[in-house]
């Protein structure tokens, strides 16, 4: 029970109806309550004993009692008309202990909840595994229950907010950092991984570099109060697409020059794994008949393609294909052949010319987007495969790819990871972070990527795959994905978006505040707490761009191997061809 000796901030108001779920507090002179404060009041109930009602302040208003007209404020201010200023705080109940749902009685004292009272009010005392997500308005840590993140009782996270203001990506990264570094995973941390798809420049290619601002004592103290070390991600691997038309397989990046590998798919893999469907990853109307042609062609490629050499090229019906353009040309020749006996096995026996032409138009439009990442002219090295096995955090940089190619990569990688997790069985965790989720799983239409994401949302937690989706507008994301997210997070919102029913979990006051929230402030909703909590998370301890990097990442066995030009450890690092040359102390004169 709460400490009755604590100073009260006011009394339960008698001018407003008090209910077990909502009551009001009349503030004492010289006292105040602000939004998000946690308060406690106690009522003695016959036969039950003291009943504690705890809640979060969701609105505060002040008025002149005794004034009838708007102009009375001038008379009151000059002392002509007697009146008194009264502040009333609205409190939304979060917990009643014991669970005897009676309203607080008017006149009962109310005080701020601190320490154990605050933990009980916000159900932190019932969380066996707490993940710190930031600081509350009172400067104390706010937690989410890991059981709603790791699939035990729920899974998946939905983060919404205006691009560039809501800091969605920064919060998602901090959440991952907190999960991995707070110790809450225990022994499971060894098998916990994160897969991050980056679409906004090279900002996420320096997560293993310390941030220059770490010398600021306030940043250090912010992490310390949450029980975290202010450090970059210690185990990270990075992948980027190869440079277009480059035959050496160098990654297409400019800021990071080491410890990053290029990824692509060979023509042999494209045919054998039936990846053609991901080339049509735009949201489509399921009534389009050319989808049957996609499956027919993909099946023929799988059956007829034969590996040719060691560079990923294939031979189909005696024709050697070394590029995606040649593969598209081969398919076109088969589908447009006037001989029905040649065309039918590839298009289907009753497929019309219009359907074939619709398929070919869309296939040919994929030439430029996919030509860079579907190759038959590069050495088939093992380090080019995107893998999460050899590092805790894997970043896949997509910003240099066209949007259609981005969807292809996301769809293929997620499908492969889902299949791998399904084959391996439960036991590990894979947190998959996707920005601009509305592009991959829009509310309307259907696509292979959307089906993969829906599968993850609906049964991924049983496989140990947790989706962390970020989007500007949750109203444009498939409803079932948002509905299956146990944790919902909102940053700065557009006023029109804030009025959508997808944000019905926010009280009216918080909806209004979300349109004014500053960067770094998020509203976090979780199943155990009926009111979303406003949190501020610390400044990133890792560099989010090259200009913020304080230098090289901490030396680990993986980075040491890359530095000395040894074999790649799975993050795609390649040998340095100049590593055996003697060092040059001074540049040659000009």
Description:
With 590 residues, this protein is of the alpha/beta class. It has 17 helices and 23 strands. The longest helix has 22 residues, at 403-424. It is elongated and about 100 Å long. The N and C termini lie far apart (81 Å). Residues 546-590 are annotated as: Disordered. Keywords: ATP-binding, Nucleotide-binding. Residues 559-571 have a biased composition (Polar residues).
What secondary-structure arrangement, pairings included, does this model have?
Layout: E1 10-12, E2 22-27, E3 38-45, E4 49-65, H1 72-77, E5 84-97, E6 109-112, H2 115-121, E7 130-135, E8 141-145, E9 157-160, H3 168-181, E10 192-198, H4 217-225, E11 236-240, E12 260-262, E13 265-266, H5 267-272, H6 290-304, E14 306-308, E15 313-316, E16 319-321, H7 324-336, H8 340-347, H9 353-364, H10 367-370, E17 374-375, E18 393-397, H11 403-424, E19 429-434, H12 437-440, H13 448-463, E20 465-471, H14 479-483, E21 487-490, H15 495-498, H16 508-514, E22 521-526, E23 529-536, H17 557-563
Parallel strand pairs: 9-20, 9-21, 10-18, 10-19, 11-12, 11-18, 13-17, 19-20
Antiparallel strand pairs: 1-2, 1-6, 2-5, 3-4, 3-6, 4-5, 7-8, 14-15, 15-16, 21-22, 22-23
GO molecular function: ATP binding
Region (Disordered): 546-590
Organism: Pseudonocardia eucalypti
